[in-house]
Amino acid sequence: MSGPVKKKAAVVDKRSSEEIAIQSAMNSNYNVLVPLRDAKHAYIKNPITQKTVHFSTQSEEFFEMIMELCEKGLTDKLREEVISFSNEIDSKWSNVLEKFNERLAVKA
Question: How does pLDDT run along the chain (108 residues), one tens digit per residue?
């Protein structure tokens, strides 16, 4: 007979729920942006609030939300998504990419 069974200590994730949501979005195969027709509109799925909001891609609110998510660590993912939309869905997304990059340059 063997001795008493030792219990393993529970592993505790010390990240905040926001950090977990952002990390999950970064590693996910799902898009944060959902492109709509002619690159004029898009949905943004906020991984922190779990809300999906419709935006005009020309609006200040759209870019404010994008920049807010970039500040949380999603810059590379968002940029990759917009590049993908431009290359694979509609070349008009290149205009959105240009404005996105301009906003990032201003923040830097």
Answer: 566 777 777 777 788 888 888 898 989 889 999 999 899 999 999 999 999 999 999 999 999 999 999 999 999 999 999 999 999 999 999 999 999 999 989 876
